[in-house]
Write a structure and sequence with these properties.
heterodimer, A: 500 residues, Heat Shock Protein 90, five-stranded antiparallel β-sheet, 19 strands
């Protein structure tokens, strides 16, 4: 400030005096107090009495500054519990002491210093923590790398083992195919193939889990019969369902089509879904329905099991997860893999479930039909005479044939059959080879003598006997082995009624 | 494919078939006892009776889903079909029948 008006100078002084506390002491040449002026009346220091000698503590400051040409300031002195700046003005003839209370400023400074100190300590602690964190991060990275390596090793192991399993299973399946060719009427090679498919599915499940997340896993579409697939699924799970007392039904439409799809993956999906349905159903029914339409295969697996709570619907697809009460067997991978496979095949999966009532899994997979679609197994009409001395066979096939729409007359001997034939019009006769009073060839000869255009189908449980020479030229349409292939039986009876 | 009604009827038939296992077992055992006596006395009809029993089992078991039982019965059936009573190797027949009885017992135990 170069030039300040008197008014401004007074203003500054007044404002300063309002905010700050000063004591101004005027002294004479003998250091006697001439006057004491206080900016704040209630602030005082002992010994500052007009006419008395300046207290020693202040006198020493005055002496120290006596030779100074300029005013001297002694900052931050502690005086009677206050922190003050003491300004010494003047010379030995007359002097003024200005005592400025700076306790508040001092306290602020102390606080700032304290905080600075604390900040310094905190900085040190932070540096130490950062260092510790860096070490932990490093260790974490190391552990993560180890875990990733272990996971990769596990996946390689599973993939390798699965591959090792695949070869012998493929070999078994190959031999089963060969056996089927050599023993076309036996169901045993088929059972072997079904079991192999099941085993292969379990192995593929492991392999699928091992390569989870891998991209570019190729599909292997092949041509196969949808009916055969449905029949295999029924045969594969029939015993398991019966053991639990469950109704098990597999239906398929339309009948007689071949489709193009990755059969192995499709079987995996089916085996996973059906085995799950059977596993979680204690009573009632499990049904599987195949429907092919518009180059899409629709599969519905429905059960009357315990159902799934809405909150758990998504969790059932998590690997190694079991939902609900009661543990059951299995690795907990089936549904996880099923969803992965369906996604990979470009399909979709929907689940609907009602706790306590059951669940329904609906799958839709792109799957072109490569053979013209036919009608479903159409119902037949007509009367069949079935002759067998085994009541168990008669009861069973009566149900099967009636299901196809046929009327069935049953007899257990040649004598009874001949009597029945006189009463009923039976253009098709199915007879067992071995009867209590003769054999099936003899029976058919008797009946043809009465009605030459009847069609005979011969059944036998003795597969080792070659009956071809015996039945040649006797109007016997087919010779079927027990256990009877129902599909083959249907075709033969249908053809017999159609006059083919 | 079968209708729901047909499935239920077949399931009932199957249950009846299972329930008939003890009767079938007793019949086979009775035949075997008699064959033992017959081999000594030279009476051929008893072998035919056993053949009837086993032959029926060989034919029906597979149709009801009991493939192992059908297989065991087929083994005996194939053995007996071409054998006269005099040609029967009794220990061998007994061994084959024991396997058949074991299969019957297994079905009875599992489903009984």
């Amino acid at each position: 400030m170069k030039r300040v008006s008197r008014r401004a100078a007074h203003y500054i002084r007044d404002e300063l005096l309002k905010r700050e506390r000063f004591i101004v002491i005027a002294l004479d040449s003998r250091q006697k107090i001439v006057s004491v002026n206080r900016s704040t009346p209630d602030w005082n220091l002992p010994g500052l009495i007009r006419g008395s000698v300046l207290p020693d503590s202040l006198a020493s400051l005055l002496n120290a500054a006596s030779d100074a040409a300029e005013p001297m300031v002694f900052p931050y002195l502690e005086l009677n519990g206050f922190f003050v700046d003491i300004h010494v003005l003047g010379d030995s003839e007359s002097a003024d002491l200005v005592i400025h209370d700076v306790s508040e400023a001092h306290e602020t400074e102390q606080t700032l210093q304290q905080r600075a100190h604390e900040n310094s300590l905190l900085s040190e602690q932070r540096a130490a923590l950062n260092s510790e964190l860096a070490e932990l991060n490093e260790e974490l990275l190391l552990r993560r790398r180890q875990a990733e390596q272990a996971s990769a090793a596990k996946s390689r192991f599973i993939a390798s083992m699965s591959h090792e399993f695949r070869s012998p299973i493929a070999s078994i399946m190959g031999y089963a195919d060969l056996l089927q060719t050599e023993l076309p009427d036996s169901d045993n090679p088929r059972a072997l193939q079904r079991a192999s498919w099941h085993l292969l599915t379990l192995v593929e499940n492991l392999l699928e889990q091992a390569r989870e997340g891998e991209e570019n896993v190729s599909l292997n579409p092949t041509h196969f019969s949808l009916d055969r697939l449905a029949g295999d699924i029924e045969a594969l799970f029939r015993t398991q369902a019966a053991a639990k007392g469950l109704d098990f039904e597999v239906t398929s439409s339309p009948y007689g089509i071949d489709v193009e799809c990755d059969e192995l993956r499709l079987r995996q999906i089916l085996i996973n879904l059906v085995s799950n349905a059977l596993r979680y159903t204690r009573q009632g029914q499990v049904s599987v329905h195949f429907k092919h339409r518009d180059d899409t295969l629709f599969i519905r697996v429905r059960d009357t099991g315990r159902g799934i709570e809405p909150k758990d619907i998504e969790r059932i697809f998590e690997a190694f997860t079991r939902v609900g009460e009661g543990n059951t067997s299995g690795a907990g991978l089936g549904l996880t893999i099923t969803r992965q496979l369906i996604k990979r095949m470009g399909g979709r999966l929907k689940v609907e479930s009602e706790p306590g009532a059951g669940s329904e899994f609906r799958v839709a997979i792109p799957c072109p039909c490569i053979q013209g679609e036919h009608d479903e197994m159409p119902p037949l009409s007509g009367t069949v005479l079935w002759v067998d001395d085994d009541q168990d066979i008669l009861s069973l096939y009566q149900v099967v044939l009636e299901n196809w729409g046929l009327r069935v007359i049953t007899g257990s001997s040649i004598t009874e059959a001949r009597d029945l034939f006189k009463i009923h019009d039976c253009p098709v006769v199915v007879t067992d080879m071995h009867l209590t009073d003769g054999n099936g060839v003899e029976l058919l000869s008797h009946l043809r003598a009465e009605q030459p255009d009847i069609v005979g189908i011969l059944i036998s449980g003795s597969g080792v006997v070659d009956l071809a020479p015996e039945i040649a030229g006797k109007g016997i349409r087919a010779f079927l082995q027990k256990p009877i292939d129902a599909e083959l039986l249907y075709k033969e009876i249908a053809a017999a009624f159609a006059g083919e | 494919m079968l209708s729901e009604k047909a499935h239920k009827l077949i399931a009932k038939q199957r249950q009846r078939y299972i329930e008939s296992m003890p009767v079938k077992r007793n019949a086979i055992m009775a035949c075997m006892t008699q064959i033992n006596a017959a081999v000594r006395s030279g009476e051929p009809d008893l072998c035919d009776k056993l053949f009837q029993q086993v032959h029926r089992l060989a034919g029906s078991a597979g149709s009801y889903g009991f493939e192992n039982l059908g297989q065991a019965a087929s083994v005996v059936d194939s053995y007996l079909i071409a054998k006269s009573l005099q040609a029967v190797d009794l220990p061998k027949l007994e061994s084959m029948l024991q396997k058949l009885i074991d299969e019957i017992d297994e079905i009875t135990d599992k489903n009984g």
